[in-house]
Write a structure and sequence with these properties.
Strand order of the largest sheet: 1-2-3-4-5
Largest sheet: 5 strands, mixed
Order of helices and strands: EHHEEEHEH
Shape: globular
Distance between the termini: 39 Å
Structural class: alpha+beta
Number of strands: 5
């Protein structure tokens, strides 16, 4: 795989913070650097509820993907959710996200995951096309809903 994936570790936190900040800025998401750092640190330290993969070279990653894990009776066991995926704008359009979204689910399936989910902005047709090409399908009967606690 040319878009090599490497499980992020605690020493990658600053590098990852820069990528997450870039993504959140681009997506227009509110940012609290302390909250982001506090949310990322346990993932890098091996908490069992999720993980972060850096995409590309370790010293200058091209992007990242964050996964969280859960359990689904409907899907028959452990499932995952793509919390965020980001590819630097300068290297988009080269098939990197497609490569990641084809390879990673295979590895996750071998590790016991039964399903992988994600959400996408209804107006982001480019992202929707990538997700459709890589086997994700809309669940027309369902809408993701959230409640902050």
């Amino acid at each position: 795989m040319s878009a090599a994936l490497r499980l992020a570790r605690p020493e990658d936190l600053d590098r990852l913070m820069a990528l997450v900040t870039a993504f959140h800025t681009e997506a227009g998401l509110a940012q609290d650097p302390d909250q982001i750092r506090n949310a990322l640190a346990p993932l890098l330290e091996g908490i069992p509820h999720g993980c972060v993969y850096l995409i590309g070279p370790g010293r200058a990653p091209l992007g990242y993907i964050i996964l969280s894990f859960g359990w689904s009776v409907e899907f028959g066991g452990m499932d995952g959710f793509v919390d965020e995926i980001y590819i630097r704008p300068a290297v988009r359009g080269r098939g990197i996200a497609t490569e990641v979204l084809l390879a990673l689910p295979k590895a996750l399936s071998e590790a016991g995951l039964t399903a992988l989910h994600l959400e996408v902005d209804r107006n982001n047709e480019a992202a929707q096309n990538i997700y459709l090409r890589t086997g994700f399908k809309p669940r027309d009967r369902y809408m993701l809903m959230s409640k902050l606690l």
